[in-house]
Amino acid sequence: MLHIVFHEPKIPGNTGNAIRLAACTGACLHLIEPLAFDFSDAHLRRAGLDYHDLAKVKIHPNWEAAKSYFGDQRRIFAFTSHTRNSYATEKYQDEDVLLFGTEPTGLPAAVLDDARITKLLRIPMLPARRSLNLANSAAIALYEAWRQLDFFQSAEIS
């Protein structure tokens, strides 16, 4: 199983879409508090539709608690625009952690510089663009890891 982590997400619709992504791929979505919304938020519920019951979602009170949960064995990839390392050239493993920052600012320097981060990765964009949508970024990275791990072969085709 792969793990998607949103560090202090602000936009409920993005988290709702990530819940849907987790439900459809079998990934576990981890949310690091504080959250800028609660789970009764209409935008979150609308984006997640009826996938809430199908998704694995864990909430951690802070970055330290999330790191503790993952232990020392799992690799944690932090997604940021502050690196030249492409997400597409990384060789992913089962149980990898894909960490994304808050929508307006990305991951804080203290997280990016944390010794527990395995590697910083970026999703390329055209120059002078602001950013990709958080849920879209998570989907891009997750599906690349899923492709490499041959999870497509185990997914049922309907």
Describe this structure in words.
The chain is α/β, with parallel strands linked by helices and 158 residues long. It is built from 6 helices and 6 strands, in the order E-H-E-H-E-H-E-E-H-E-H-H. It has a 6-stranded parallel β-sheet with strand order 3-2-1-5-4-6, sandwiched between helices. Strand 1, helix 1 and strand 2 form a beta-alpha-beta unit. The radius of gyration is 15 Å and the shape is globular.
Biggest sheet statistics: 6 strands, parallel
State the helix count: 6
Distance between the termini: 21 Å
Tell me the fraction of residues in β-strands, as a range.
15-25%
Specify the overall morphology: globular
Low-confidence stretches: none
Query: Strands of the largest sheet, in order across it?
Result: 3-2-1-5-4-6
The helicity comes to: 25-40%
How many strands? 6
Q: How do you describe this structure in short?
A:
It is built from 6 helices and 6 strands, in the order E-H-E-H-E-H-E-E-H-E-H-H. The chain is of the alpha/beta class and 158 residues long.
